[in-house]
Amino acid sequence: MEIFSAFGLDVKLLIANLINFLLLVGILYKLGYKPILKFVKERQEKIEKGIKYAEDASKKLAHAAVEREKITSQAHKEAQEIIGKAKEQAKAQADALIKRAQDETRSIVERAKKEIGMEKDKSLLQVRKKAAEAVILAVEKLLKKKMDKKTDEDFIKDSIKEIK
């Protein structure tokens, strides 16, 4: 004990301080350490749950992306099929319109040919009538005059020129 006194330490005071320190540590352990430990443990559990939820959300997001890709792909295929069908229908309608136009054109051409033929026949009939009238007039003139061989040949040539 003299050693303690040599250094200026009081043993009773040292023991009292040691007891006070141990009491303080015990009280702090009971009142502070356990609640802090409990708080840290709860916080750790929350963080673990958050990580688990984040992983689940990430998996769901990846699954949703795959589903979105499938749906987009399916929609694209359906759109291509609809476009293909529309093109086929448009081509069929265009072909039908072209065929109908060709048929109408043929019909118009045939009617025009018939009309031209009828006009040609009318024109030939008129020409024949005029030729016949000219021949009748020429015969009348010829009968009024007596013809010699030269006059007869000239008359025939003139008649042929008039008919043409």
Structure description:
The protein is mainly α and 164 residues long. The chain has one domain. It is 95% helix and 0% strand. It is built from three helices and no strands. Helix 2 runs antiparallel to helix 3 (149-163). It starts with a helix and ends with a helix. The mean pLDDT is 87.
Q: Structural class of the secondary elements?
A: mainly alpha
The geometry reads as: rod-shaped
Number of strands: 0
Q: SSE order in H/E notation?
A: HHH
Number of helices: 3
Biggest β-sheet strands, sense, barrel: none
| Beta-strand share of residues | under 5%
- Round the Cα radius of gyration to an integer and report it: 64 Å
Extract low-pLDDT stretches. none
Q: How many structural domains does the protein architecture include?
A: 1
Summarize the structure.
By secondary structure, the protein is mainly α. The chain is built from 3 helices and no strands. The chain is rod-shaped.
Keywords:
mainly alpha
Outline the secondary-structure elements.
Layout: H1 2-7, H2 11-144, H3 149-163
